[in-house]
Write a structure and sequence with these properties.
CATH class of the largest domain: Alpha Beta
Number of helices: 6
Radius of gyration: 18 Å
Strand content: 25-35%
Order of helices and strands: EEEEEHEEEEHEEHHEEEHHE
Structural class: alpha+beta
CATH architecture of the largest domain: 2-Layer Sandwich
CATH topology of the largest domain: D-amino Acid Aminotransferase, Chain A, domain 1
Largest sheet: 7 strands, antiparallel
Helix content: 25-40%
Distance between the termini: 16 Å
Number of domains: 2
Shape: globular
């Protein structure tokens, strides 16, 4: 594999320069973190599965007219994406009370919310990704009011689509986190869905049993974490033949 310059390394992915201007290569790791990096571990095969799952979901979301940064999957652990300027705001859409939402508001986990609720978090590891408001986002120019309106509209559309898609395979979409970026094309700037959508960034429960099929199994030491990710891929019809076999990561040239 040819050597490539590393652009950025996060908790679950490494970003490398792409083969063409305006592109990046997104490499999915097996590393797992929780509670703002205070808990760390490895989930064998997670990167392979998340690459496949995110590819599938990004492609399906693109088919309903929501623009994304995804271009194509390159191999078991890598995908080619458009280079975007990430907006430093995590958008969380909640359909059922769970996790920190339940703790903050004293609402029992599993309570169906009267309607989908959107929350915002400032992307900052140093500050533990604090919850923020629309006022913070526009006042500090992290996004313009028009950009924020577009992010909200796309988030709700994605929620409607994914809720139906997952329910069709017996999975309840409890909540999920997404990120957006600015895609510059000549003089035009477009807001697009970026990062990934996978069991790392979604809470996914079995419709019948409420069994958790996401990273909460790692967060809460529930065990069978790889099996849960595999089950999501299996239900979506995208589990790689022979299971999530591994490949060597790319060589890095600093």
């Amino acid at each position: 594999m040819s050597r490539r310059r590393q652009i950025y390394e996060g908790k679950a992915k490494v970003i490398f320069e792409g083969p063409e201007p305006g592109t990046l290569v997104q490499y999915f790791k097996d590393d797992a973190t929780a509670f703002n990096n205070r808990k760390r571990g490895t989930i064998t095969g997670k990167g392979v599965l998340n690459n496949r799952i995110s590819e599938y979901l990004m492609t399906r979301i693109g088919e309903i007219g929501v623009p994304t940064h995804f271009l194509r999957r390159l191999n078991m652990r890598e995908q080619l994406v458009k280079e975007v300027e990430i907006i430093p705001v995590e958008v969380v859409v909640r359909n059922v009370a769970a996790g920190s939402f339940s703790k903050r508001l004293g609402i029992s986990e599993g309570t169906r919310l009267p309607r989908s609720i959107i929350e915002y978090y400032y992307k900052s590891d140093e500050l533990d990704d604090p919850i923020i408001t629309e006022e913070h986002i526009t006042a500090f120019a992290w996004a313009t009011p028009a950009e924020l309106d577009e992010m909200v509209s796309m988030s709700l559309r994605i929620n409607d689509f994914l809720s139906g898609l997952f329910f069709g395979v017996g999975i309840r979409l409890v909540d999920f986190k997404i990120e957006f970026g600015r895609y510059y094309q000549e003089e035009d700037v477009r807001i697009v869905l970026a990062d990934e959508i996978s069991p790392d960034s979604c809470r996914l429960w079995d419709v019948e049993t409420d069994e958790k099929l996401d990273k909460d199994r790692f967060r809460r030491d529930l065990g069978n974490v790889p099996e849960a990710y595999q089950e999501v891929a299996r239900r979506l019809g995208i589990l790689p033949e022979g299971g999530p076999t591994d490949i060597k990561g790319p060589k890095v040239m600093q």
